[in-house]
Amino acid sequence: MKFYLSCLLLLLSSSLAHAQLEQGTWLVGGAFSFSTDESRTPYPNSTIISVYRNTNFKINPSIGYFLFDKLAAGIKPQFTWYKATPIENSSGTANYTRFWIGPFIRYYLLKPDRQWNFLTEANYQYEITFNKPDKVGSNNYSFNAGPVIYLNSSVGIEFLMGYYYLTYGAGKQFNEFRGIQLNIGLQIHLTK
Predict the structure, then answer these.
(1) How far apart are CA 167 and CA 170, in angstroms?
(2) What is the percent of the chain where pLDDT is above 70?
(3) Residue 123 in contact with residue 162, Cβ under 8 Å?
(4) pTM recorded for the entire structure
(5) Residues 6+ positions from 120 with CB-CB distance below 8 Å
(6) Euclidean distance between CA atoms 118 and 158, whole angstroms
(7) For residue 157, how many other CB atoms are within 10 A of its CB?
(8) Does 2-190 carry CATH code 2.40.160.20?
(9) Quick one: CA torsion of 20, 149, 3, 12, rounded to 10 degrees?
(10) What are φ and ψ of residue 166, in 5° steps?
(11) pLDDT class for 11, splitting at 50, 70, 90?
């Protein structure tokens, strides 16, 4: 009974909730995501291609600023735990911890006075290498979209789904990774 009463009170209190999407508002928060993909890497001077299953767990804090109503831009670092498991023509597993940083831009599609909204976000991040043996950096491009539900006028929970494209290496050792990712995040809107 207490659970249902708590849910009812949360629903009633959040029915008046909406976020501050006006110019001059700060956006602070973050998300975590899980993704899995398959990579194909050709062996040098050969037609053989090694195939790996890659698993990523990412934590993405962010800080942004509303440049215009409903349009925010900012910086988003990312901490990634990465594991590669051999599938075909490959051997050995790899585990890395990665750090990325880069800009993001996001746009909220609906009017600010709603309890929920729909947003789109584009990101670019460059990898700063630490413990990888070859020290080659990577570029990560992603696009996400999905709903945000506001708990009050300052706090929103985001459920985003998107596509990412990652490049790594150069020349014959150039690798590409593509995949779908799911993000769950929390954003806090801070006004002056």
Answers:
(1) 9
(2) 83
(3) no
(4) 0.72
(5) 106, 107, 109, 143, 144, 145
(6) 9
(7) 16
(8) yes
(9) 50
(10) -120, 130
(11) very low
Q: What is the pLDDT of residue 51?
A: 86
Q: How many CB atoms lie within 10 A of CB 124?
A: 15
Q: Which residues, at least 6 apart from 4, have a Cβ–Cβ distance to it below 8 Å?
A: none
**Domain boundaries, given as residue ranges, for the chain:** 2-190
Query: H helices within the chain, ranges in order?
Result: 2-14
Q: Cα dist. 165→43, 98, 119, 159 in Å?
A: 22, 16, 20, 20
| pLDDT greater than 70 at residue 9 | no
Torsion of CA 66, 155, 102, 111, to 10 degrees: -40
Task: Specify whether the CB–CB gap between 55 and 83 falls below 8 A.
Answer: yes
